[in-house]
Design a protein that fits this description.
This is NAD(P)/FAD-dependent oxidoreductase. InterPro entries: BaiN-like (IPR004792), BaiN-like_dom_sf (IPR023166), FAD/NAD-bd_sf (IPR036188), RsdA/BaiN/AoA(So)_Rossmann (IPR057661). Pfam families: HI0933_like. The chain is mainly alpha-helical. It folds into 2 domains: 32 residues, no CATH class; 60 residues, no CATH class. 35% of the residues lie in helices and 4% in strands. It has 3 helices and 2 strands. A two-stranded antiparallel ribbon has the order 1-2. Strand 1 and strand 2 form a beta hairpin. The longest helix has 18 residues. The radius of gyration is 19 Å and the shape is flat.
């Protein structure tokens, strides 16, 4: 993906980062925030991948996602022992807990 993003941002593939111009950097940021792609198919349910295990939800305040054991430590996404059958539910868990944790940090 790096060679494609570099080419679409008009950055030579082997150009040192310290030599990237502001305009090239802005082009890259714009590209990455709205990267165009086309879905070409779906894989079977047997290939769906998630992780299991992690920090027990019993050890996390569900209103803030803050650790009940270590104040000021927040958890979100797959670091938690939460999982669902398909990726969409897991993505929603990641987005929701991430938003909640981020919004709760003082």
């Amino acid at each position: 993906m790096v060679p494609v993003a570099a080419e679409l941002s008009h950055i030579p593939e082997h150009q040192p980062v310290r030599e990237i111009t502001r305009e090239q950097r802005n082009d890259l940021v714009k590209l990455l925030k709205g990267f165009p792609f086309t879905l070409c198919g779906l894989r079977g349910f047997s290939e769906a991948i998630i992780t299991q295990g992690g920090v027990s939800v019993r050890d996390v305040d569900p209103s803030t996602m803050e650790s009940r054991k270590v104040g000021g430590l927040y958890f979100a996404g797959e670091v938690l022992d939460l999982d669902a059958l398909t990726g969409g539910f897991n993505l929603q868990i990641a987005w929701s807990t991430g938003f909640l944790a981020g919004s709760s940090v003082p």
